[in-house]
Every structure is written in structure tokens, then in C-alpha cells.
């Protein structure tokens, strides 16, 4: 009986885990997006999407992380990439998949082919998504034959190509990608 009472008292003195973990989905303070602008107008970015219960919301206009209440184009959580439109958010963001074209030479957004997120997100579901799972290595590998064009519904267009799901140390969900502003369609 004394043993049970002692264990009960010790358990009652344990710290409240809710103070240490954001169950509400909010990100703890930190740097979740690192950008390096290149001379050719392309930005090389690394995003920390390692939190299993939180999304990182990105505003491409400002090249920064914002809250869900702010204007955002894309959100990242682990391997999931969502656009702010359709089933993923209240915005008007649409995404077009571009296959078989050179990312570097694209300067103007396409006229058509845009979709909003539905049951699957455009990035994760259309024609296999941005990655393939390598069963032999148990790793996500980017599909290098494609890039995406984002239309924010307000006249802003960007191209985005995924480079890697892992950082240089092999940490999963530390994704790198290239992106750049595009001219609107003709």
C-alpha cells in the first residue's frame, strides 16, 4: 500500500507535458525557413517540416514563414505539401504540374493545367507527386522530371522544384527546393 501511495505521489509531481508540446498545432519558436537568393533570380530554400503535428506556412511574396491566419501559398508538414485553396485552405491558390520541361528556362506561367487541392494535394497526388519512395533504401527521392507552378490567385506566379527531402546530415523532413517568380501567362 505504501508503495502505491509513493508512486501516486511521484506521478502527481510530474511536469505537465502539455507545456512542452504544442498539441494545438502551433510551431514552437524557431527558424523554419532558410533562403539563399541566387544571381539568376532563383531562391534556394530549406524548410524544417519535421514537426509531426504542425504545418509550416510559407508566403512566397515575402519568402517567409507566416501563421495560418496570414496570407500563405504553401504549407509543409513532413512529406506533405499543400496549397492554400480547395480542400487545404480558404485561399484561391492553384498549382500546375509541369513535366518534361527545363526548370531553368521557364520564365512565364502556363495558361492552363492548374488545380486546387482535393482529396489528395496537387504536390502529393497528381501523377505520383513530388517524390517516389525507394523501397531498397527506404528513402523518399524527388521526381526530377517535374516542377510546379503556383498561382496565388492575386496575380503572383512562381515555379518550384523539389530538390531533396533530407538535409546534408540525412535528417528527414528538412526539405530543399528551388523557386522563382514567373511572368503571368500571355
Walk me through this protein's architecture.
The protein is mainly beta and 186 residues long. It has one domain. Strand 1 and strand 2 form a beta hairpin. The longest helix is centred in the first third of the chain and has 11 residues. The chain starts with a helix and ends with a strand.
Q: Work out the radius of gyration.
A: 20 Å
Q: Which secondary-structure class do the elements indicate?
A: mainly beta
Domain tally: 1
First and last CA, distance: 80 Å
- Helix segment count? 2
Along the chain, the helix and strand elements come as HEEEEEEEEHEEEEE
Unreliable stretches covering 5 or more consecutive residues: 14-23
What is the molecular shape? globular
Q: Strand order, biggest sheet?
A: 1-2-13-12-11-7-8
Tell me the total number of β-strands.
Answer: 13
Provide the β-strand percentage band. 35-45%
Main pleated-sheet profile: 7 strands, antiparallel
Range of helix content: under 10%
What is the average per-residue confidence, as pLDDT, rounded to a whole number? 89
List the keywords.
186 residues; seven-stranded antiparallel β-sheet; four-stranded antiparallel β-sheet; globular
List the helices and strands and how they pair.
Layout: H1 2-12, E1 33-37, E2 43-48, E3 56-59, E4 64-66, E5 74-77, E6 80-83, E7 94-99, E8 114-115, H2 122-125, E9 131-134, E10 139-142, E11 146-151, E12 157-166, E13 172-182
Antiparallel strand pairs: 1-2, 2-13, 3-4, 3-5, 5-6, 7-8, 7-11, 9-10, 11-12, 12-13
Amino acid at each position: 500500500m505504501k508503495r502505491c501511495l509513493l508512486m501516486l505521489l511521484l506521478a502527481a509531481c510530474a511536469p505537465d507535458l502539455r507545456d512542452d508540446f504544442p498539441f494545438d498545432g502551433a510551431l514552437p519558436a524557431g527558424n523554419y525557413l532558410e533562403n539563399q537568393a541566387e544571381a539568376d533570380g532563383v531562391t534556394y530554400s530549406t524548410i524544417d517540416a519535421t514537426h509531426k503535428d504542425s504545418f509550416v506556412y510559407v508566403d512566397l511574396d515575402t519568402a517567409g514563414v507566416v501563421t495560418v491566419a496570414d496570407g500563405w501559398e504553401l504549407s509543409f508538414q513532413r512529406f506533405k505539401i499543400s496549397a492554400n485553396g480547395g480542400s487545404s485552405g480558404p485561399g484561391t491558390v492553384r498549382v500546375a504540374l509541369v513535366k518534361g520541361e527545363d526548370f531553368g528556362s521557364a520564365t512565364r506561367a502556363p495558361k492552363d493545367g492548374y488545380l486546387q487541392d482535393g482529396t489528395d494535394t496537387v504536390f502529393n497526388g497528381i501523377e505520383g507527386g513530388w517524390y517516389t519512395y525507394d523501397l531498397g533504401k527506404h528513402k523518399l527521392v524527388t521526381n526530377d522530371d517535374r516542377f510546379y507552378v503556383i498561382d496565388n490567385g492575386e496575380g503572383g506566379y512562381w515555379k518550384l522544384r523539389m530538390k531533396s527531402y533530407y538535409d546534408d546530415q540525412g535528417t528527414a523532413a528538412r526539405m530543399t527546393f528551388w523557386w522563382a517568380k514567373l511572368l503571368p501567362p500571355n
